[in-house]
Amino acid sequence: MKEQQYHSIALVSDGLRFLDQTVLPANACTVETDDYREVLDAIRNLRVRGAPLIGIAAAYGVVLAAREFCRGSSAECRTRLLEACDELAATRPTAVNLFWALERMRAVIGSIDNHTELPAALEAEARTIHNDDAARCESIGLHGTNIIPAGAGIITHCNTGALATGGDGTAFSVLLRAHRDGKRIHVYADETRPLLQGARLTMWELQRHGIPSTLISDGTAAMLMRQGRVRVAITGADRIAANGDSANKIGTYGLAVAARHHRIPFYIAAPFSTVDLSLSSGEEIPIEERAAEELTQLGGRRIAPEGVDTYTPAFDVTPAELITGIITERGIIAPPYGETLRHNAT
Ligand code: MRU
């Protein structure tokens, strides 16, 4: 089968073009904007999502802001650009890639004296962040395929493909490389309640690459493991603390617990832009809570009684002791993670 290509985001001459992920898979609708405020809104509302991709989108958002603000005086341009960085940083709290990318953009703003040069310099930096992520994804795939046995059933959670990154993905890149290597894998994708990134996005990506796959409800994972149909579990991460504790989409922790119980290796795949050495453990990772409606409604229809109490963390933290290895662009890191993460971080 011929693989069908798609791009989640691209800077074009008039602005930023991105796929609106909230309407996939029914519509592959592309949005084009020259206003960084729309990028803000897109990140906040998950039209653009996934840890590396929101960093890339925010960097491009700063480029749009520079095109808008750098025609005026130097002082005004810098102040408004830094304000735009702050606004972009306030969109989502958990994925550290967002803050990592904005830090790089702030460094460019601080290092260029002539403000008329800022739009081009910021564009170059944003494109580098994007291109580097694509290269990191490829390396993650190349390293990760080594842990995939031929003929394996592999379970994954949430969406970690091209829709979540600047390249082929994190955990998804491993699946793709193993598939392209002819390993005859079969992927089980958790639907990923409540926003269904697994059902809507991962299944869409798996189909477009022709990877044999089955959609399951989140609650099916443990039973599938007990039945012996899964040999490896692999997910991405939104932030990895210095000790290896890893935050990822809500439900990942439960998957890791089930994998440990069934003696199935559980891997995290992530670039070093996801590692936050400033946090000693996962307990310090800020966990985003989303609106109650994301749980009480499905496709715009209410599925819970009016007035129910809800608890809606978007992410959970998998403790390092449940993680068999962390697949990075620089190789697969084995526990204990602390020293190796510190040694390899940029
Ligand atoms: O809320 P989302 O859809 O942005 O959450 C995304 C995830 O949790 C992914 O698994 C994560 O970003 C890792 S991979 C690219």
Walk me through the structure.
With 346 residues, this protein is an alpha/beta fold. It has two domains: 9-137, Up-down Bundle (Four Helix Bundle (Hemerythrin (Met), subunit A)), CATH 1.20.120; 147-345, Rossmann fold (3-Layer(aba) Sandwich). Helices cover 40% and strands 17% of the residues. It is built from eleven helices and 16 strands. The chain has helices spanning 36-44, 51-69, 74-89, 96-111, 118-144, 171-180, 197-209, 221-226, 252-261, 293-296, 337-344; strands at 9-12, 15-19, 30-33, 153-156, 186-190, 213-216, 232-235, 239-241, 246-249, 266-269, 275-276, 297-298, 301-302, 315-318, 325-328, 331-333. The strands form four sheets. Strands 6-5-4-7-10-15-16 form a seven-stranded mixed β-sheet, sandwiched between helices. A four-stranded mixed β-sheet has the order 11-8-9-14, covered by helices on one side. Strands 1-2-3 form a three-stranded antiparallel β-sheet, covered by helices on one side. Helix 2 runs parallel beside helix 4, helix 3 runs antiparallel to helix 4 and helix 4 (96-111) runs antiparallel to helix 5. The longest helix is centred in the middle third of the chain and has 27 residues, at 118-144. The mean pLDDT is 97.
